[in-house]
Amino acid sequence: MKPLFMFLLLAASAASFAQMPKMQRAEIKTPGTYCLTCKEVIERIAPQYVDGLVKINVLFKQQKTIVQWRPDRTNLEEIKTAIANAGFDADDVTANPESYKKLDDCCKKPEDRKVKPAPAKPKL
User: Fold this and answer.
1) Residue 26 lies in a domain
2) CA atoms within 13 A on the CB side of 109
3) Count of structural domains within the chain
4) Helix, strand or coil for residue 1?
5) Residues 85-100, mean pLDDT to the nearest whole number
6) Domain containing residue 30
7) Helices 76-85 & 36-49, crossing angle to 10 degrees?
8) Which letter does DSSP use for residue 63 in this model?
9) Residue 50 burial (CB < 10 Å; 0-12/13-18/19+)?
10) Are the C-beta atoms of residues 52 and 73 closer than 8 Å to each other?
């Protein structure tokens, strides 16, 4: 009786595992990411709003974000919206204006910063 029960349990778990959809992966353009603070904000906030977001990695020097998610729980548009709600543009989804206002100065577009960057020194 015990071997039969173990076999049925193993078969049921294998069947449920076989039906799990394959993870999806995408690259999202995030042009407003300039520093580690931007990276931390997106990587901390976005997963709070998206069930099924498995991995998020902001590559701020390349101004892109790599995401991996479970398609049975979410989709790419929801992930882009979560990034936009954190205050950053995500592909064609514009940043939420209220969230953008709350970002640190270093995470804002250069034209919106309180302290403007120093002009480049001419080469001699």
Assistant:
1) yes
2) 11
3) 1
4) coil
5) 96
6) 20-105
7) 130
8) T
9) buried
10) yes
User: Is the residue at 123 inside a domain?
Assistant: no
Kindly report the pTM of this predicted structure: 0.77
Asked whether residue 1 is assigned to any structural domain, the reply reads no
Task: Give the pLDDT band (50/70/90) at residue 74.
Answer: very high
Reported as a single tens digit per residue, the pLDDT across 32-66 is 899 999 999 999 999 999 999 999 999 999 999 99
For residue 35, tell me if it sits in a domain.
yes
CATH of the domain at 74: 3.30.70.100
Q: What angle do CA 70, 59, 105 make, to 5 degrees?
A: 115
Give exposure, 55-85, as e/b (b: 16+ Cβ within 10 Å): ebebebeebbbebebeeeebebebbbbbbbb
